[in-house]
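One chain shown below:
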Amino acid sequence: MRLPLLRPAELTTEQRALYDACMKMVQDVEYQGFEVRNPDGAFVGPWGVLLHFPELAVPLGQFVNLAQKLPGLSERARQVVILTIGGRFNVAYELYAHALLAARAGLRPDQVAALSAGARPADLSEDELLAGDVAAALIRGGTLPGPLYDTAVSRLGRPGFDAVVFIVIHYLALGTLLNAYDVPAGRAVAWLP
């Protein structure tokens, strides 16, 4: 990683407040099974970068929390969108963490592998394929094609389409951050469901 990992004893007052908020967040079962802190207590992954920028991390965290709560998509479809982005931009930590989350959501290892490699598994549900297609079109750049927009809104509903858009924004931001600072995948961590 291009930034030093910050151990708890090295934190400023602003960083400590963010560290404590991150500690609270990662206690959730969603964050179990992949590395979020190293043995020294320093956060890794996006948290390890964001601790260097507490004034930016707080509003970004507020956006992320709101984007994650948007209704309209199954957890499987959300993971398809996230892995589509991670696979397109080869975001090591994003692929590492979301391979586990996608498996928990019911995606098979071969589907996770294909999405992580930038492929489109044909055997996903229609909603999952459509969510992945919208994400792939958005990250290619330009206006979303009209027929894809119409089909996505018709099939996923406005809330589902909107969720895809904001998940793309969320993970493009995190992926850019992770790649800019060359954040590696974490270590293997035991997880008991």
In short: The radius of gyration is 17 Å. The chain has two domains: 8-68, 75-180.
